[in-house]
Amino acid sequence: MVDRTMNGIFPILATPFDDKGQIDFEDLEREVEWMVGVGVNGVGIAVASEIYKLTDPERDEVLSSVVKQVNGRVPVVMNTGAMGTDVTVYYSRRAEELGANALMIRPPSFIAMPAGEVIEFFARVGASVGIPIFQQDQATAEVPPGMAIEIARRHENLCYIKVETAPTVPRMAETAALRDAAAESGDAAGDLILFGGAGGTFLFEELRRGSVGTMPGSVIPDVFVNVWERWQDGDEDGAEAEFRRYGALIRTLKQPQGLDNWIYKEILVRRGIFKSAHARHPAVKPDRFQIYELEQMLDELKLEEPEA
Amino acid sequence: MVDRSMRGIFPVLAMPFDADGNIVVEDLQREVDWIAGHGIPGVAIALGSEVYKLSDEERAFVLKTVVEAAEGRLKVVMNTGHEGTGVSIDYAKSAQDLGASALMIRPPSFAQLSGSEVTKYFVAIAEAIDIPIFIQDVVGSQVPPPLAVQLAKAHENLCYIKVEVAPSVPRFADLVARTGTSGLIPFGGSGGQFLLEEARRGSQGSMPWAVIPDVYARVWDDFQSGNEVDAEIQYRRYAALNRTIAQGMGAAMWVNDWILIRRGVFQETSQPRQPAPRPDDQTRKELDAMLEELDLIGK
């Protein structure tokens, strides 16, 4: 029976590299230990982990290292999307063998495909493994709400979706409404479970519209866990007011083209988790002002000291 | 001599429509007056004003109304971009005749053009008028920094640029490093999300939404007078609100109207023209909670 229990805060790990671009496994272990220690509900290895800049052996090494360090305490989600169905199946089976608890997959996007091909892509990958899959709905590789329902119907493993095509707030509501209508009519797609992403920017707006968790970056997992727990305890207003304090930081983390990767790691260095902020090329590098601005924000939020 | 003096906050006006889609003139006048009352240097009538949903006659009417309501207190920037060079020139001349202080124009985007064609387009417009032009660098219609500098060198009227291709922060740095003697004056946009980061990298002004012009002006002035840290701490309080506005053009139109209604500038029935996907009622409650926390209701 496929695992339908995942919810809550699932940060996407940053991949630590040394200044020459080699993976620093010691820092990766420290990052994982910190995440689990602050109480995250799961971790992901995905786009924000620069997974698309790793060789195939490195993908395996990173996943194995994370699985070993997590040691069954929380689920590990591995992004195994590729441009071809066969390669995606290969990555997916490999990840399952190495101990991933779930997969995350976006539609092939290099050549835009019609809906029928995308649905068949997911159906084949879903049937090839024995673990659940997060469909990933993203600006350059969309899974529109109607398509998500059709995909979920094709295999029970296709039972999660991460919605991150902007604007995510109405999109979450629409996906949830279609899911609920499917449930009403006894359709298998009625079991689709919704997560948010996009840096957690609209965490609470999304939760209110049917999401049960989110996959933010890995730099403030303690903050996300804190507000999530307050929300779970019924303190909606308090959780949201607290979360709004981090709006400017989250905005800064969302700058594309690799600037985000550098900035995540500059924070992880300052929080005592990473030794280097290196992001693999190509990635736009922050200027000295950006570092100054970041330090100002961390200082105001009292985030400069490591908490674990 | 072309006016190179524009600096600071130039909010993009929200366009007030009633439930039937008619322009509400009194609301537009009230908005302009309210903005001028905060000591702001200028306003723009642009994409955020739904200018692309106005008829030619309405464009002229809106500009005329705004120029009159400004009573000389505000510079008025009019977006006159069009897919064809000829129509763009007609719009530009008409806006100049009606009293626009400057124009804002993005490259034609329906059919993608090479840099040399974009240059011809801008130069042809610049030659037809005597007021300055803000070159608009926006996703879907980009003017990369090297092209921007080339345009500025090609005609003295092409002396402002509004940079809003993400990530805008390194783009500003790149642009300013290349500007040299071209005399290009860069402004920010993108809803003012990175207002102060851009200022630190050479931005001379910004065109944010019109809903919290008082806040933008205050932090901008604070920043310029050297209180950088205070300005930024103040500004960060509005990040969640800015994020809520920046959910695509459709949602932004509704959210802007709702804020201006709450602040007492627009009347209760104000809404955008179609098409504009309306956020759900829950969004309005979430917005109210934020406005209350920021003490923005009724003022």
Descriptors for this entry?
heterodimer; A: 308 residues; alpha/beta; TIM Barrel; six-stranded parallel β-sheet; two-stranded parallel ribbon; 46% helix; globular; B: 299 residues; two-stranded parallel sheet
Short description:
Chain A has 308 residues and is of the alpha/beta class. Chain A has helices at residues 25-38, 56-70, 85-97, 115-128, 145-154, 168-184, 203-208, 221-232, 236-244, 247-253, 259-270, 288-300, and strands at residues 8-9, 43-45, 76-79, 102-105, 133-138, 160-164, 193-196, 213-214. Chain A contains twelve helices and eight strands.
What does this structure look like?
The complex is a heterodimer of chains A (308) and B (299). Chain A is of the alpha/beta class and 308 residues long. Chain A contains 12 helices and 8 strands. Chain A has a 6-stranded parallel sheet. A two-stranded parallel ribbon of chain A has the order 1-8. In chain A, helix 5 links the parallel strand 5 (133-138) and strand 6 (160-164). In chain A, helix 3 (85-97) packs parallel to helix 4 (115-128), helix 4 (115-128) packs parallel to helix 5 and helix 5 crosses helix 6 (168-184). Chain B is α/β, with parallel strands linked by helices and 299 residues long. Chain B has one domain (8-225): TIM Barrel (Alpha-Beta Barrel). Chain B starts with 7 loop residues before the first strand and ends in a 6-residue tail after the last helix. A 6-stranded parallel sheet of chain B has the order 2-3-4-5-6-7. Classes of the chains: A alpha/beta (308), B alpha/beta (299). Chains A and B meet through helix 6, helix 7, helix 9, helix 10 and helix 12 of A and helix 6, helix 9, helix 10 and helix 12 of B.
